[in-house]
Specification:
The protein folds into two domains: about 300 residues, UDP-N-acetylmuramoyl-L-alanine:D-glutamate ligase; about 140 residues, Mur ligase, C-terminal domain (Protein-Tyrosine Phosphatase, Chain A, Alpha-Beta Complex), CATH 3.90.190. It is α/β, with parallel strands linked by helices and about 475 residues long. A hairpin with a 4-residue loop joins strand 12 and strand 13. The protein is built from 15 helices and 17 strands. It has an eight-stranded mixed beta sheet with strand order 4-3-2-5-1-6-7-8, with helices on both faces. Strands 12-13-17-14-15-16 form a six-stranded mixed beta sheet, sandwiched between helices. Strands 9-10-11 form a three-stranded antiparallel beta sheet, covered by helices on one side. Helix 3 packs across helix 9. Helix content is about 40%, strand content about 15%. The two termini are about 35 Å apart.
Amino acid sequence: MATSRSSGSGKRPVRRAGRSSSSAKLTKAGFGNYQTALRWLYDRTNVERLRPSRVDQSVFKLDRMRKLLEAIGNPEKDLRIVHVAGTNGKGSVVAMTASCLRSSGYAVGVYTSPHLVDIRERVQINDQMISHASFSEHLHRVGMASQNLSSDLGEATFFELMTAMALLYFAEEAVDAVILETGLGGRLDATNAVTPDVTAITKIDFDHRLFLGDTLEEIAAEKAGIFKPGVPALTIAQTPEVIEVFRKKAEEAGCTLEVLGQEIEFSSRFEANQQLGPHMRIGLTTDRSNFEHVPVPLPGEHQAQNCGLALAILDKLGAGGFDLPEMRVLEGLESTVVPARMEIVRGERHRVLLDGAHNPSALSALVKAIGAHVPYDSLIMIFGCAADKDVDALLEQVSLSGDKVVFTKAKGNPRAADPHDLARRFESKYPKMYQIADTLEEALVIAEQAAGRDDLVVVTGSFYLVGEAKKYLRQQADRAAAAAK
């Protein structure tokens, strides 16, 4: 693979991203169809698709979210909720917790973000996405309610509308529990308008600095904004500075904080056997629970803490009246699946691993996990990221992992970094071979052509990029299956 070279503060108004080519109107008659509902939703202010420098901080108004929930009848008050925040690992903790609850016989609503292929992935009950009809109906009801809010609150955002719609849907479907993942931060996140049964915070690391702060302590304080009076709070082992912030915030909020390895007895170890191959095992003991030698269902040393946090959440839910037999919990753990977390699919000729690692810490953990769990001769990394991320730190991790690198970008993400710029920055520091692809499809073709039989192609750096790859590879597999018939 030959080396390629590239060719070539006051407040700002809130800008919208993801506008459709034709606008859709909200009327009393309803949207008419799912596509119209989507067009209207994507015409709202969508922070996920804006560069942080273009977002007016006043867009984050928890009062607006509270008023929106009030306008639709406060559905969140009828729900038993687990609220999960953190920088890395939220999706894994949500998935393991939900899987164990489902295995124990409960109907579980799950709200996550972002999505990979279909926006309805964000709103699921027992692994089933909300239907097109329910999506349109509930979004219409929430949208109509949002138009009656006081003008001084401002217009409801994309994420606020999605969150309110999900809570309304879950309440009307009478789910037994909801696992609610924060979007950005915690303190001012739209999901923070609820009062949960349990709060949990995963690993804290640097991300979204323009919104959350430049130090781990500042980021931790924003995440700990989900702590509520009398609601048990849980977290994993963190740096002493982060734990100190959490303890202070818990005291201010009037809740108890328990940390894996401190208030909660926790242990982990790496193991390999013929049945499971290389994997982590954990132990967790509380006054109510005693889990010993539990296999962690997801690959990677970092998943041990995430699995422990999920078990600690279940322990608190058990104390709150949920019936969670240990065997059912273990069955649920074993069946946990997390899309785009070390997910291996078949490319045209080679294995392709998809992982949404989107910050340096997550990318480092991914590379370590691949080395421990996935045999390969050479690793070809297809990499793209958002321009507002810590690009230099991400590129350092890329240099330590990929034997060959293809820089590209997701076509559906306005925040995506230009692959030519990524290549210039990479070349200035690292004497490694790379190529540039203007599209993901082109990047996959380049990687497939360069890969040997036992090589591994890894797509990472952005959930948008991984989602695009997942959709493309699925379509490729469907075409091949149709041709074989």
